[in-house]
Amino acid sequence: MTQPRRHLSPGYQRYRRIKDRLIRQLIRLAATSVILALASLFLFLFWETLPLFGSADMREESDTQQTVKFVPSSDFQPSPPIPSGSNLSAHAIWLYGQASVILVDSQGQISQWLINPLQPESSEMILAKQFPIQRTDTRLLALPGSKGFISYDPSGLIRLYHATSGNMLAEYQSQLLPLEQIHVSENGGHIQLQNTIGQQQTLQLHNPHPDFSWSLLWKPWLYEGHQQADYIWQTSANTDRFEAKYSFVPLSIGTLKAAVYAMMFAMPLAILAAIYTACFLSERTRAWVKPAVELAEAFPTVVLGFIAGLWLAPLLEQHLATALSLLLLTPLLLILIHALLYSTGLLKESQTTQWSGLPRILILLLVALLLAWQLGHWLELWLFKGNMIEWMTTQGIDYQQRNGLVVGLMMGLAIMPVIFSLTEDALISVPDSLRQGAMALGASPWQAVIRVVVPTAAAGIFAAIMIGTGRALGETMILLMASGNSPVSDFSLFEGMRSLAANLSIETPEAMQSSTHYRVLILSATLLFLSTFIMNTLAAVVRENLYRHYRHF
């Protein structure tokens, strides 16, 4: 017998409609706020990096009341030696810092020569760059305070170059002919033109970021004080005549290196643990196992970085061979022990795929760990004469205490709960009817999981991996405290690194507002933001497609 419907008063119905409308508006407002916040963040990053790509120019001075002090070029430009191998009739000038020479030869070819760091007093210099050929009567003028220089000739054609980037930044055609000489201001912001009859003209140089170029970020470059081109990140030194080096390659390699090693450690453990939890544990046991693992996700990464830098790194340095044997041999020994026990009939599948078999698994794991530990000692004595690090040094392999191994282990522990939780959710969302159908056709529980459940949840597992990778790319504190923070372009497991996120944490307090250094850091933050945003968005789309595909079961 059905109960009669309860009649609601018009006032209460109106209250419910207003309440529902208000809740919908609040939800819509919250979603819009999140979208606007992300858009505002991206626009801010884009706006702050946009000046880096602006062009330089030379314009006639408009402020006639401004007093500018010009310095004759001979006051700060002593004559440099002519590099051997160049035209002896060349006209040469020192660049600011007197570590490289700019010359124009008798054919009008402009080139940059670097002092050989191994033979600083010799005329044997290193040819770094060549610039477009000009007239044979071209003259040169170095700009104070930067690696920029100006070329000019009697026809009035003036060109502004920057030696580090190798680019021509601006060009100006003067009507003050014939042009005889140019003087530059003390700060390098103005130049004064003078022709043969004494007429003068003042130009203002607008060149806010001359030492930035997109190619400098990603290509090997030959810098002063070096013999060959390399990827270098170095933004400061103990001298004001320093040549800033903005290569993103060491930072990108450090970011990828940390993420790859962390995922190599976290991904198999997290996925296999999720498979065991979702497919073989009872619901009662799963109800407290999963929250316990997810609770580890809230553990502060700064504490993990502290443990990694002050405890784990020295421990691995003292017992490197043993640690590697534990990581590599334990899974192999565990598989071998299981195979032997299965073949002899001492262990059955039901004893390891159920909760009651967990004590047996733990005992076997302990045996495998002890065997791997002992094998590590034997292998170090047999292969490395009792000291693996000394053997590596003799083989030319550098070992740093805070390295990729330390970062991979500790950061893998930090991202493992994320991958575990999302993978377990994907496996649980697979309809149980698929597994039951496979078992009804004769498949064992393990075969049903591996051949039916896991392929079905592959999209969700992939999403978990993507989110874990995004978390690893953006990790800061563990890398800041346990990586050594050396910007090297090396994927070696035993050397340090510096990631984009850690670099932002280190150098942001040092960057001057609106400087090239400041804007390059903003650009690196933009790249990091876009990479993690794309990965997380892709993972969310994959998870949504998985839900749509299986919600009708």
TrEMBL record:
What InterPro entries would the database entry show?
MetI-like, MetI-like_sf
Q: Which residues form the ABC transmembrane type-1 domain?
A: 252-539
Which GO annotations describe the biological process of this protein?
Answer: transmembrane transport
Q: Which UniProt keywords apply?
A: Membrane, Transmembrane, Transmembrane helix, Transport
**Its membrane topology:** Multi-pass membrane protein
* Any one of the GO CC terms: plasma membrane
Q: Which family does it belong to?
A: Belongs to the binding-protein-dependent transport system permease family.
Protein name, UniProt field: ABC transporter permease subunit
Which species is this UniProt entry from? Nitrincola iocasae
Its lineage opens with: Bacteria, Pseudomonadati, Pseudomonadota, Gammaproteobacteria, Oceanospirillales
